[in-house]
């Protein structure tokens, strides 16, 4: 009986299995394919969401809000300048930063045409000098010998969170300096350290202070400085540093304190000041020999070297001038810097957000969506996670026939950012040359 009953059932099953795909209706195939596609999408979404949740948990721990103190007039000026740069294809994505643009505007007294020329010259110089890759490409093996003849370095932060840069000008020996290096190599080192400051030190200070930092405070110890130190080599070194800094890194000095300035230095100052930008000269404070109280008004004692009236000795680091003390040495802050946590989110008058410039250094502009007669949305390359930073837009960006095709928002939503390489958390040359007397910014 069992065999008799199972026969038809077996035949039905076998017959069903032996049916070819062609025997199924088109609707059946679509239904099956749709089901499989839904399952695949669901599995993919679950995987991606699991990564996103883990990333969000991590970002809640590490993320920090950076205060942006630009006022309405500055925002409007930056927006106009940005649109001018985009129209002339002068805005690579790596430099699409409103604070950087504001520094160039300030350097040219908010004259957009002059600021645009300065910006264009800066881009040409960076390409010719190799500034974009100098952090990786250049190795300054003679750093220890150089620092013996040019004592310099960052040490701590001031009360506003800015890094403090120190030079002991009276101990510089330019003639011995060029015996252990060349002026060309020293200039590469100088630029490399400036790049490290903008890529690591300023962002680290911004995170620590919870506000945007892109300027430093300088202490210039000129004890013993006189005309004999101002040799032809010294003049050439100061002139070259001043030009590079003034032309390409403007408005990065907040204030400078000159201490221990005697009669010899005052005679020298009349010669030196011709190498200094007039705007920089206005930021300089002569404190003479009784400077300790003034420095402590600006810098906490724990952040100020003992030799200048503070309490810090950095005994375990070989002394304050060699320690490179600062928030940029905090591993947690460095992780945040490398994750882009120091970025400000620039707001708009209209509350509309915009997206970044394309990574291939060309403006990538989608169709403008009008919200008013004066304000439109510029939706540039949204497909690159690196460029997904909310900025402000205050005026329209006309479409260009040279604009390239952008990735869709859906492409971005379905993408999973991947880290392609690691970044060192400590620099091989800890001391930096920045914002010294020769600086023209």
Automatic annotation (TrEMBL):
Annotated localization: Cell membrane; Golgi apparatus membrane
Keyword Protein transport among UniProt keywords: yes
Pfam families xrefs: CRAL_TRIO (PF00650), CRAL_TRIO_N (PF03765)
Region (Disordered): 1-31
InterPro entries: CRAL-TRIO_dom, CRAL-TRIO_dom_sf, CRAL/TRIO_N_dom, CRAL/TRIO_N_dom_sf, PI/PC_transfer
CDD domains: SEC14
PROSITE patterns, per the entry: CRAL_TRIO
SUPFAM superfamilies listed in its UniProt record: CRAL/TRIO domain, CRAL/TRIO N-terminal domain
This protein's GO CC annotations: Golgi membrane; plasma membrane
Main location: membrane
Keywords for this protein: Coiled coil, Golgi apparatus, Protein transport, Transport
Biased composition (Basic and acidic residues): 9-31
Topology of the protein relative to the lipid bilayer: Peripheral membrane protein
Domain CRAL-TRIO stretches: 142-316
One Gene Ontology term from the biological process aspect of the record: protein transport
Similarity section: Belongs to the SFH family.
Name of protein: CRAL-TRIO domain-containing protein
Species of the source: Populus deltoides
Source species taxonomy: Eukaryota, Viridiplantae, Streptophyta, Embryophyta, Tracheophyta
């Amino acid at each position: 009986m069992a065999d008799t009953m199972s026969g038809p059932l077996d035949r039905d099953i076998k017959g069903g299995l032996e049916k070819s795909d062609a025997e199924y209706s088109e609707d059946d195939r679509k239904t099956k394919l749709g089901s499989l596609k839904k399952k695949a999408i669901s599995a993919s979404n679950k995987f991606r969401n699991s990564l996103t949740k883990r990333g969000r948990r991590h970002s809640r721990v590490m993320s920090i809000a950076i205060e942006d103190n630009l006022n309405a007039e500055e925002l409007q000026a930056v927006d106009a300048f940005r649109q001018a740069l985009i129209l002339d294809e002068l805005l690579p994505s790596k430099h699409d930063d409103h604070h950087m643009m504001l520094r160039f505007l300030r350097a040219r007294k908010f004259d957009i045409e002059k600021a645009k020329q300065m910006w264009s010259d800066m881009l040409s110089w960076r390409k010719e000098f190799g500034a974009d890759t100098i952090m990786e490409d250049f190795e300054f093996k003679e750093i220890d010998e150089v620092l013996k003849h040019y004592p310099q370095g960052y040490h701590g932060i001031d009360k506003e969170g800015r890094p403090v840069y120190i030079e002991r000008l009276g101990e510089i020996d330019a003639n011995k300096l060029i015996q252990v290096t060349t002026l060309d190599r020293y200039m590469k080192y100088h630029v490399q350290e400036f790049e490290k400051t903008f890529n690591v030190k300023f962002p680290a200070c911004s995170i620590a202070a919870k506000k945007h930092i892109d300027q430093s405070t300088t202490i210039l110890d000129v004890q013993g400085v006189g005309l004999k130190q101002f040799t032809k080599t010294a003049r050439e070194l100061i002139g070259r540093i001043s030009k590079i800094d003034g032309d390409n890194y403007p408005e990065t000095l907040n204030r400078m304190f000159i201490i221990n300035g005697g009669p010899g230095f005052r005679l020298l100052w009349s010669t030196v000041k011709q190498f200094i930008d007039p705007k920089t000269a206005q930021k300089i404070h002569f404190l003479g020999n009784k400077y300790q109280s003034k420095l402590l008004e600006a810098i906490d004692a724990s952040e100020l070297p003992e030799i200048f009236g503070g309490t810090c000795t950095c005994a375990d680091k070989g002394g304050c001038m060699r320690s490179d003390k600062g928030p940029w040495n905090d591993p947690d802050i460095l992780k945040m810097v490398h994750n882009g946590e120091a970025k400000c989110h620039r707001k708009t008058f209209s509350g509309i957000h915009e997206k970044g410039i394309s990574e291939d250094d060309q403006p990538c502009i989608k169709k403008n969506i009008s919200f008013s007669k004066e304000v439109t949305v510029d939706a540039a390359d949204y497909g690159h996670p690196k460029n997904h930073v909310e900025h402000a837009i205050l005026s329209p960006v006309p479409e260009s026939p040279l604009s390239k095709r952008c990735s869709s928002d859906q492409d971005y939503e379905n993408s999973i950012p991947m880290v392609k390489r690691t970044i060192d958390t400590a620099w091989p040359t800890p001391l930096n040359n920045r914002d010294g007397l020769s600086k023209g910014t």
